[in-house]
Amino acid sequence: MKKSIEKTKNKLRWSLLYTFSCVRPTKSDGTAPPSLTGPGFSRIVCCNQPWLHRKNPNKYPYNSITTTKYNFVTFLPKALFEQFRRVANIYFLLAAFLSLTPITPFAPISMIAPLAFVVGLSMMKEGLEDWHRFLQDMKVNNRKVGIHKEEGQFYDTSWQKIRVGDVVKVEKDRFFPADLLLLSSSYVDGICYVETMNLDGETNLKVKRSLEVTTSLDGDENFKDFIASIQCEDPNSSLYTFVGNFEYNDKIYALDPNQILLRDSKLRNTTFVYGVVIFTGHDNKVMQNSTASPSKRSCVEKKMDCVIYILFSLLILIALISSIGFTERAKFGMKNWWYLRPEHATELYDPNEPYLSGFFHLITALILYGYLIPISLYVSIEIVKVLQAMFINQDLQMYDEEICKPAKARTSNLNEELGQVDTILSDKTGTLTCNQMDFLKCSIAGVSYGIRASLVEIAAAKQMASDFSDAPPDAPQTNNMIHEYLINDESNSEPEFQSDTLQKQIIKGFSFEDRRLMGGNWLKESNTDVILLFFRILAVCHTAIPELNNETGSFTYEAESPDEGSFLVAAREFGFLFCKRTQSSVFVREKYDSSGNVVEREYKILNLLEFNSKRKRMSVIVKNDEGQILLMCKGADSIIFDRLSKNGLKYKESTTNHLNGYGEAGLRTLVLAYRELEESEYNAWNVEFTQAKTTVGPDRECLLEHSADCIEKELHLVGATAVEDKLQKGVPQCIDALAQAGLKIWVLTGDKMETAINIGFSCSLLRQDMKQICISAGCDDSVVDDSKRTVREDIVSQISNASDSINLEKDPHAAFALIIDGKTLSYALEDNIKLPFLNLAVNCASVICCRVSPKQKALVTRLVKEGTSKTTLAIGDGANDVGMIQEADIGIGISGVEGMQAVMASDFSIAQFRFLEQLLVVHGHWCYKRIAQMICYFFYKNIAFGLTLFYFEAYTAFSGQSIYEVWYMILFNVILTSLPVISLGVFEQDVSSEVCLQFPALYQQGPKNLYFDWRRIFAWLANGVYASLIIFFITISIFYNQAFRTSGETADLTAVGTTMFTGIVWSVNIQIILTMSHFTWIQHAFIWGSIATWYLFLFLYGASSPIVSGNAYLILEEALGPAPIFWVVTFLIAAACNLPYLILMSYERLVNPMDHHVIQEIKHYKKDETDQCMWSRERSKARQKTKIGFTVRVDAKIRHLKERFHKRYSTPGQVAASSSPHSSS
């Protein structure tokens, strides 16, 4: 049965039905194909002879593609370049070289080993991440497709082995492996259906057609002796143009985009196609639209480099001070220091050459004070980011059970950037939507049907019930009135229908529920003839193909758009089953009641005027069994209403009201109309139409449009449909949360404007009372007289007027939406217009860019990124989103069931858009605060430690002597303070993930950069300077003049240095305790373990041989341990260093608390459990002021309903009457 259906379907000559899409003119004007000579048209393709393309001049690349940043040759130089872009690494590289000379104060290994470890670990991480990209590239490159080898035989071969000239056979639901010229298909007239969702975001199937001369090549054996050649344009990025000539059998035929099948588009509704490869690998148009994988760095890391520049300047300053001091002492004082034996001095301290010695001392000081520049900061950040990425990968809240895919951090360099996003630029199709429409409501003959509420209506009702829950004592009556008003006003149904659940099972594409139309009950309605016509239009006016499921006995439909599919499912459920299509007819099984009697009717298709973005309507002219000729039409209300006859306006007012209500409910609408034609009128029109259809030349499209306009008029209104565009699960809630988090959301789609606007309404980026600003170029393609200058001036004027409107708006609830198409956008992105355009867009609540090319998506992303200087995030799922993803500061790929191009080019991948909330609001918020606090703490502890070296050198006549043992200095960053700061970067949480989601406004701490702004950075630097002063002078002042041991001995250099170092270890570890908000056993183990490790090291180091420990022999058990002054100084240092921070933090929490401080206290005292009102109030106060999202839309809906409610119940008597139990319903 399946094979017979396929055979019947493939015999359909769709080219005879379609009017605008795929018609081959039958007349010829004798014009020859254009001559393709000169630059830009040098490509020669030898069809079915790929071996001719293995050598010059026609040697073209293989079909393999790569999205990696490195390869085996470039990895070492490029990775080293990436590492030494960091200023600190350059400094330590110089220091490592200098450590090999006699002027170094440390052993060479102490400088070379840390640098090699840090750089090597970072390069390994980069290499591993790029290896994963390589594996995903190979997964795509190893896909299989049938390639003609010899003697009419096709063999499955990997994509990467395809060459230009190969003939390939692509089967249904498979992606095209390269850019192909369509030769033939399973349809006899060589057409095929292509889904270009990955390229332009459109879900409507495109019709492609082959040249008529190649339609006979419809079997494998026909390619045994096939030889032809193609001369065409060189590789370029234009997806919608193609110019070429096809030479076959000594004749030349012109080629156009209708014959080209682009890589990453998919074959639909067609069993197979044959094509010849034109562009391969990075020459294909999709890859031409992509850019090289960029090297991205976060804003925090860039700012960290600035801080390191500041510290480096401080390092040079104190090194100069030290060098000048040493020079002065060497020149004037060293001659008197007999114990240094100045008569045998070297150039390092020669009193006779003080300036040379001072220069050498400058280099020594630069190395000695190098601890001000934290080399371990980079490796610690790398470790922390890898661990953060692991937590992102393992987050079950971002795991999609349906397709078994988790979130994936493809690079860990941008974790903290997730917490600083200001603008999200999103694709539409496959990202926001799942391409499924549900038939929910309809209006027929001025009566609204369908009692099931949309998502917007449900949310509005719940919120209104919540609003009235705290009302005066008569709240129950008021609530009942509101509920009754909602039911009666929105659906015009009776309350008794509301509780009746007729739909026992879920039917894909059909969520309609209303007993008045189901089960044949529509026959009891007053306008049965109009309802019958409504159902027949649903079942007949389309281009779908029915397919019978032999297992279930039910029909499914291969439709060009999800809307058509939902209409046919609705017609089937209403009892009008579209069951068969032939070349000239469609057959509908009509069931009028529940008795099961079925009548199969044939509708002969006379003409088909298909839908396109310019017409915004579709019509079919049919002849029924009774001989009537009917024009059935469906389209946008603005188009259909203008074409109604005076006698066809009967239901216009009520239908318009219903359409407005459906729009408020977030539904997509179409209007249905019809016209009965006299046979003579039709015949006269058909002659004119046929003549226009077969015309050759530039006027053909205009003639067809005019002919269609002549017949699509004097219509009679039948009704309207309302379908709910099924967004991906959780999209409205996610957008609402992101809006409350203060994020701006732009939609960039290749889809047509009407579809994009409908999706905007569905996901609450648009709402009914939002003022739409449509920027248009103001001319059609057919208008050739308007110069570009005139168009440009018109666009500038529109932008200026729109900006003035926004500035003059006084209504606080007013919101503006900017909508612009790709043609206009090409002007708006020009240098002298793009800044005014950006300013207008930034002032709008939402921005929707339609019909944009992949390159335009990337250009818009670049404009927002560079024009606002704020962090941008791009998210998409298709190959057309690659440029946008790579251009944005952060690229997110949707790892759905389709192609993987977007994922391979992305920085992070998630399975569904809704996981973006968890990724940004939770992980982004955490990662930003963790990395920011970690870096600030790193600078603090290194300044506190490094400046003590400077103080001591100044105290000892700038001698270059270190107060600490070499092993102390090596262990300070590697062991004693590394694990606590890593635990801060990995486990710190100011609030839990649940609270982050409940208070999305907390996210704004990142975009506002509250934790890594210059005020906070300098505060931490000042804290480090303060701590260094306290540590040094408390230790020196106490140890300087008093006995250290009971025998009266004073402390030596090792004892003073060890005591000072102990104070540092305690101070910086207590500081990190005060910094943390969230503790687990891991933090406790790392912090207290680090302190314990210091004492353990002192014990073991002192217990080792004096050859190893030197002056620190038995330093703890014999010298410091028994001395009370050692413990007292340690306590004083730790307390004095951290007391100011504790006081400041307490003052901030009491006087000027941040949002998370308030939440922490509420959670600590469990007020969220005992006082729900306060918890809700705090959540409401913490919301960002936004004008998009589900919450705002519901608020607007509530305001609208309350106004109408108060108008209806404006007098006390009416309210009392309505509230009375004896009042009639």
TrEMBL record:
- SUPFAM superfamilies recorded for this chain? Calcium ATPase, transduction domain A (SSF81653), Calcium ATPase, transmembrane domain M (SSF81665), HAD-like (SSF56784), Metal cation-transporting ATPase, ATP-binding domain N (SSF81660)
Ordered alphabetically, the record's keywords are: ATP-binding, Magnesium, Membrane, Metal-binding, Nucleotide-binding, Translocase, Transmembrane, Transmembrane helix
The record's GO CC annotations read: plasma membrane
Signal sequence interval, chain numbering: none
Q: Does the keyword Chloroplast apply?
A: no
Look at the named UniProt entry and state the broad enzyme category this protein falls under: translocase
Membrane topology per record: Multi-pass membrane protein
Catalytic residues per the record? D427
Residue positions annotated to bind ATP are D427, K428, T429, E564, F611, K634, R668, T749, G750, D751, R851, K857, N880, D881
Question: Boundaries of each P-type ATPase C-terminal domain copy?
Answer: 903-1153
Cofactors (names): Mg(2+)
The portions of this protein that span the membrane are 306-326, 359-381, 935-954, 966-987, 1017-1041, 1053-1074, 1086-1104, 1124-1144
Superkingdom to which the source organism belongs? Eukaryota
This enzyme catalyses: ATP + H2O + phospholipidSide 1 = ADP + phosphate + phospholipidSide 2
**What is stated as this protein's family in its record?**
Belongs to the cation transport ATPase (P-type) (TC 3.A.3) family. Type IV subfamily.
Protein name per its UniProtKB record: Phospholipid-transporting ATPase
* Lineage of origin: Eukaryota, Viridiplantae, Streptophyta, Embryophyta, Tracheophyta
